Amino acid sequence: MSMMAGIQGQVLEVTVVGCQKLKDTEWFSRQDPYVVLEYSSTRHRTRTCTDGGKNAVFQEKFMFTMLEGLRDLKVAVWNSNTLSTDDLIGNATIKLQKALSEGYDDCTWTLQSKNGRYAGEVRLILHYAAAKKQNYGSAQLAPPYAPQVPHHSAPYSGPSLYPQVQYSQPQSAYPPASAYPHQPSAYPPPSASAYPPAPSAYPPGPSAYPPPPPSSTYPPQQSPYYPQ
Q1: Disordered: where is this region (predicted)?
Q2: What pLDDT does 6 receive?
Q3: If we measure between CA atoms, which residue out of 111, 38, 31 comes closest to residue 77?
């Protein structure tokens, strides 16, 4: 599909920036140039740059309705005269191929006099907005991407995009009794004989029975040395 297909009725925007190094057609004063654009039967003329001389600035914009099969634009630079006919400074034929295919063209074109000699330069900016729409339309002709899907119903076995989280029953905060072996005590149990028994805080109470006699010689015998 051609990038320039379907230009019929589309709009081409042409901006006349200016001219430079123009051939001088005046002998005693500065020339007054202007630019004429022609496409098919449509003609546009810029204002006259009074005393523009060899370098004239215009910065004027014009619109042209495109015709299928016509991709050339004619440009001519004239010198405006008051008492006589205007003088042709130079002309050129502008090719629109780049503007119609890429949508934009900013270029300086060489002018030629009637004798085919160098007559200066003219700068034009061409803008064709329909080029983007045509390029977009041609891109839409491409078949859409259709991923191949297997016909079997096997589940997806590839790696998951998210980490797998396993849930289990909450565990007790304390381990079971059998989780740890029995450890011997760091200190042996105190011995019964290691410390003496603590004294009683109270005296022993009186016995319920009289004490036994001190000896078997009771009652006492009479002493032979003392009289009774």
Answers
A1: 149-228
A2: 84
A3: 111
